[in-house]
Amino acid sequence: MIHSLYSNKEIFLRELISNASDAADKLRFRALSNPDLYEGDGELRVRVSFDKDKRTLTIADNGVGMNRDEVIDHLGTIAKSGTKSFLESMGSDQRKIASSLVSLA
Fold first, then answer.
1. What dihedral do alpha carbons 59, 49, 31, 69 form, nearest 10°?
2. Helix, strand or coil for residue 60?
3. How far apart are CA 31 and CA 42, in angstroms?
4. Is 28 helix (H, G, I), strand (E, B) or coil?
5. I need a labelling partner for 35 at 20 to 30 A (CA). Which of 5, 8, 45, 74 fits?
6. Could you tell me the CATH number of the domain that includes residue 79?
7. Which regions of the chain are under pLDDT 50?
8. What domain range is 35 assigned to?
9. Where is the Histidine kinase/HSP90-like ATPase domain (predicted)?
10. Burial code of 27-47, b = ≥16 C-beta within 10 A, e = fewer?
11. Whole-Å CA distances, 100 to 20, 38, 56, 58, 66
């Protein structure tokens, strides 16, 4: 199933952009209680760039990032950026605030 979904270039690209957006939303939520997480730059970005000569497409964000284990767990798994488990790990009050900031994937 994953191979058939990811063979569709539009779905694959949409999933990568969605994951980047989720990472930015997670940083926005975490920064509510710790503004230093913005590291002096509170403008969250998702950047899509194309290098015609190298024939590469790059999706970059300045969100929370992933450690090695998260990359292994989530990369290649459609509709799984870790957002659902991120929200489930919070208390109910935090979850209410976060659900307005982070879309469930």
1. 20
2. strand
3. 9
4. helix
5. 74
6. 3.30.565.10
7. 1-2, 98, 101-105
8. 2-101
9. 9-80
10. bbbbbeeeeeeeeeeeebebe
11. 17, 20, 34, 28, 22
Residues in CB range of 86: below 8 A, 6 or more apart:
26, 98, 102
66 phi/psi in degrees, rounded to 5:
-135, 145
Cα separation, 66 vs 68, in Å, equals 7
DSSP letter assigned to residue 50: E
- pLDDT one-digit tens code per residue, 9-34: 888 888 889 889 989 999 999 999 99
Question: Taking a C-beta distance cutoff of 8 angstroms, is the pair 63, 26 a contact?
Answer: yes
Place of tokens 């990369």: 75
